[in-house]
Amino acid sequence: xxxxxxxxxxxxxxxxxxxxxxxxxxxxxxxxxxxxxxxxxxxxxxxxxxxxxxxxxxxxxxxxxxxxxxxxxxxxxxxxxxxxxxxxxxxxxxxxxxxxxxxxxxxxxxxxxxxxxxxxxxxxxxxxxx
Length: 130
Hints:
mainly alpha, 5 helices, 65% helix, 0% strand, rod-shaped
């Protein structure tokens, strides 16, 4: 069964991000000049913010990977619920139609379309397996 691997990426702490954060903090202080000292006290330093962003980004990526894996498991379980003949035709459709992105949402949507008679596996142009 074809699928697209989920990319792994790390948070990149760049000078542009640091400059943007400093600019944001400066604008917050300049918006209320009478309270600039109090606002400055409450603003975290750049390293703290960047470490927090890196941690949150790693959590976000892990949550996304877990969600996609859960959806793939859901799709495979749903595929096993079909009779063998239908399962073979659906898998043939999935594996031969390259214009469908190999994502779990499209895999589940294909089965949803079949369940609601919006996908005809016997239509011309669709390869038939045994």
